């Protein structure tokens, strides 16, 4: 579905992770814009959320609407290839819940007269890269790994059916949406139509499939690289991401080692046996087999995203840990252990508690709904109080 040139204003839920990013990415007024004029409206820049070689990403707001702007710099030849590339791909793959939403495209005129091309995007929250940093070398819960794996595989299934290869899947390009409570893919600057690869160097070191590594080496030597890589490179990258989420450690040096190249399956087995006491056995085996199906050196033997979603790992119901609820921002405010059983069985007291809770929550925003369960699960807890700021 092609994206229109305008955009639909969209209210954002509280952005806890974005606020944290703002603290570490304070705006440098000499190199970052303070305002953007987007379709006749002035948007204030609050923070620079990320900066790469070709583009910077900012958190911006206009009134109560908060979004992200990706501002592209001119390439080495003074052109706008990066902007044209990403806007073209994003415009054609809109409509899937696990892919970042593109609201529109515009040109920004700086005070010194320099024009830059920009994308107005959905503002997302914490990245898988951030989650790995906070893991402190301990693996994430099965619920979190399963949630991320399913969301990314559903995005890849859609993307691959449309004929596109993401070509830069990594923890930094998988972000959590507090509003939609799911993970989404971002950054399609290296993406291409399968069979029509128009970028020589794809994927990031540490998440690069063997065939992409070989292709990059040939390109550096000035040699012909053949027909290009396939959708299988995305599955390799996801396999590494999930292995890092399970182990809690970055594996860049591991996957560059000769031991990995000789027998990566044995290293995967070793990583899982080392964490065997932390997780239930059966889910661990299913996750291990799912990851190994993505890490065959031969791309033709790798699982597809569609087939990977049929793994027994996704048939097991997991519940989030309290650490997961802290790590992932959500529009649902959950208050625990605030009342005792005596209040639950007296109708008058129960209604009073409901009113008291609603009044307290309204200090922070509009309460969309509120529920205090009288029976398990959740008995005595105030849950599903959705507070929008």
UniProtKB/TrEMBL annotation:
Residues the record lists as binding ATP: 70
InterPro entries found in the cross-reference section: Kinase-like_dom_sf (IPR011009), Nucleotide-bd_a/b_plait_sf (IPR012677), Prot_kinase_dom (IPR000719), Protein_kinase_ATP_BS (IPR017441), UHMK1 (IPR034372)
Keyword hit for Transmembrane helix: no
Matching Pfam families: Pkinase
The entry's keywords: ATP-binding, Nucleotide-binding
Nucleotide-binding among keywords: yes
GO aspect biological process, one term: positive regulation of translational initiation
Cellular component, GO annotation: neuronal ribonucleoprotein granule; nucleus
Record's signal peptide: none
Any one GO molecular function term: ribonucleoprotein complex binding
Every Protein kinase domain range: 43-314
SUPFAM superfamilies per record: Protein kinase-like (PK-like) (SSF56112)
PANTHER family cross-referenced by the UniProt entry: SERINE/THREONINE-PROTEIN KINASE KIST, SERINE_THREONINE-PROTEIN KINASE KIST
Name listed for the protein in its UniProt record: Protein kinase domain-containing protein
């Amino acid at each position: 579905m092609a994206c229109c040139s305008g955009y639909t204003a969209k209210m954002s839920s509280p952005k806890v992770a974005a606020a944290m990013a703002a603290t570490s990415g304070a705006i440098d007024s000499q190199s970052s814009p303070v305002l953007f004029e987007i379709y006749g409206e002035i948007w204030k820049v609050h923070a620079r959320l990320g900066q790469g070689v070709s583009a910077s990403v900012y958190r911006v707001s206009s009134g109560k609407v908060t979004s992200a702007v990706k501002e592209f710099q001119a390439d080495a030849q003074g052109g706008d290839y990066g902007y044209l590339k990403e806007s073209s791909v994003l415009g054609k793959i809109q409509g899937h819940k696990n892919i970042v939403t593109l609201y529109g495209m515009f040109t920004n005129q700086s005070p010194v007269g320099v024009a830059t091309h920009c994308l107005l995007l959905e503002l997302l929250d914490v990245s898988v890269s951030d989650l790995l940093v906070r893991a402190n070398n301990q693996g994430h819960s099965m619920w979190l790994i399963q949630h991320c794996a399913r969301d990314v595989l559903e995005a890849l299934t859609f993307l691959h059916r449309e004929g596109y290869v993401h070509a830069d899947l990594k923890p930094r390009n998988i972000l959590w949406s507090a509003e939609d409570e799911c993970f989404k893919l971002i950054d399609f600057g290296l993406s291409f139509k399968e069979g029509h690869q128009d970028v020589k160097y794809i994927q990031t070191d540490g998440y690069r499939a063997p065939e992409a590594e070989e292709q990059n080496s040939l390109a550096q030597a000035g040699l012909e690289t053949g027909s290009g890589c396939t959708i299988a490179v995305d599955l390799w990258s996801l396999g590494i991401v999930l292995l890092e989420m399970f182990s809690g450690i970055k594996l860049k040096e591991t996957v560059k080692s000769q031991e990995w190249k000789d027998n990566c399956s044995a290293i995967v087995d070793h990583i899982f046996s080392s964490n065997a006491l932390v997780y239930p056995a059966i889910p661990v085996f299913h996750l291990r087999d799912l990851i190994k199906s993505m890490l065959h050196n031969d791309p033709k033997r790798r699982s597809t995203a569609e087939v990977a979603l049929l793994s027994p790992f996704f048939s097991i119901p997991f519940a989030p840990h309290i650490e997961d609820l802290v790590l992932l921002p959500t529009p649902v405010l959950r208050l625990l252990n605030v009342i005792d059983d005596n209040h639950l069985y007296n109708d008058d007291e129960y209604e009073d508690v409901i009113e008291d809770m609603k009044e307290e929550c309204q200090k922070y925003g509009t309460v969309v709904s509120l529920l205090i369960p009288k029976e398990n699960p959740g008995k005595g807890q105030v849950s599903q109080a959705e507070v929008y700021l």
